[in-house]
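User: Hey, my collaborator sent me this sequence without any context and asked if I could get a structure. I don't really work with proteins. Can you help?
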Amino acid sequence: MTRIGPKSQIEIPQIEIPFMGRWHYSRAEMIADGIVHAVGIVLAIAAGSTLLALAAFHTG
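Assistant: No problem. I've predicted the 3D structure and written it out in structure-token form, which is a compact way to encode the shape of the chain:
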């Protein structure tokens, strides 16, 4: 019986490439990151509230 398809499977050698997506943050960097994100969230909420208030006053 003849087999349809490739005669043998091609083996691809495994190349070890380091995963570049992992960083080790120091405690100070984590604290600074949290502070920056908290300030950004507060400013975004304040800006959104200001825009809603201006839109409400502008429409009547």
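In plain terms: The mean pLDDT is 85. You can pass these tokens on to your collaborator as they are.
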